[in-house]
Amino acid sequence: MTTWVTNAWYVAGWDSDIDSAPLARTICGVPMLFYRKLDRSVVALRDACPHRLLPLSMGVKEGDSLRCKYHGLLVGPDGAALEMPLKDAPVNRRVCAEAYVTHERHRFVWVWIGDRDKADPALIPDLWPCSAEGWVFDGDYYHIACDYRLMVDNLMDLTHETYVHVGSIGQPEILEAPIATRVEGEDVYVTRWMPGVDAPPFWRSALGKEGAVDRWQVCRFLLPSAVMIDVGVAPVEAGATIEDHDSGVRGMVVDFMTPETENTHHYFWGMARNFDIDDVGLTARMKRQQGGVFAEDLAILEAQQKSIDDNPGLRLMAYEIDEGGVRSRQIITRAMKRQSEGLDA
């Protein structure tokens, strides 16, 4: 049994990742290739020639089609054969590489995993800050050798910041501030309000001033595997609250974990912000800083996965701080169960 939800949209790549040359990437256990046609729309095919199963991504582009590098079978963007290895042989249109539905939104290329007749773009997770007017968004990608749900756990419990990210965004007050967890439909929220604290280095630099601040963290899990984290700080005198905090500096950490295999995943991360949105240099610096922070998570999670593999008789324990991750996993499990029973996610 797989560990991910099907009949769902997953991020296949950043919009800039996919160009005219084929990009090979395994998504939810399926080897796929992606490329852009001349009209810039995105093609997604199973990365296996229907003749002898050589990866089609090794082939040669001919217009909007791909010619297999082994025997020269020509496959169109819909996956159907256009030309057989013997040029005078009749084309068998039943020879076909499986094609997948794609869509572009929020700077990402999405691919539908499951029944293609159910591939409704309205079901793409609402990562609204990535496209909203008055916000700027950028980010990057890491390949991580761990179960994608471990990253969900990590992002829904920011208590680890105190120890894992001590030099950037971590501070002792994170452990001292109470957290509240709630479930709304199939979304999970974990909120933490830290009034009158010193801003950690990352946020002090973003704010551009010294002094006590009110700090907030609001983590939100969305099916099938997205986490958005509303974060920021505001000077105490600004009067921000957990419900209303557009003063100061506010950002939205955007994370999408696309399963590759049971124990590996593609991690697409970034930050949207609603301050200094025209400062291109600041965008680049924040992306670099955020990349350093997430590299610290990568090291921890890959070590955790190795330890899980090395200790098959032990199981993960859940304490009060883990409730957000536990609730998120429960929603994933329920969605998988519904699908196994033939119901929509």
Write the layout of secondary structure elements.
Blueprint: E1 8-14, E2 23-27, E3 30-36, E4 42-46, E5 60-62, E6 65-67, E7 74-75, E8 81-83, E9 99-100, E10 102-105, E11 108-113, E12 136-144, H1 148-156, H2 161-164, H3 173-176, E13 179-184, E14 187-198, H4 201-207, E15 212-222, E16 226-235, E17 249-261, E18 264-273, H5 280-310, H6 323-340
Antiparallel strand pairs: 1-11, 2-3, 3-4, 4-9, 5-6, 6-7, 7-8, 10-11, 12-18, 13-14, 14-15, 15-16, 16-17, 17-18
Helix pairs in contact: 1-6
General description of the model:
This protein is of the alpha+beta class. Helix content is 21%, strand content 34%. The protein has helices spanning 148-156, 161-164, 173-176, 201-207, 280-310, 323-340; strands at residues 8-14, 23-27, 30-36, 42-46, 60-62, 65-67, 74-75, 81-83, 99-100, 102-105, 108-113, 136-144, 179-184, 187-198, 212-222, 226-235, 249-261, 264-273. It has a 7-stranded antiparallel β-sheet with strand order 12-18-17-16-15-14-13. Strands 2-3-4-9 form a 4-stranded antiparallel β-sheet, with no helix packed on it. Strands 5-6-7-8 form a 4-stranded antiparallel β-sheet, with no helix packed on it. Helix 1 (148-156) packs antiparallel against helix 6 (323-340). It is globular and about 80 Å long.
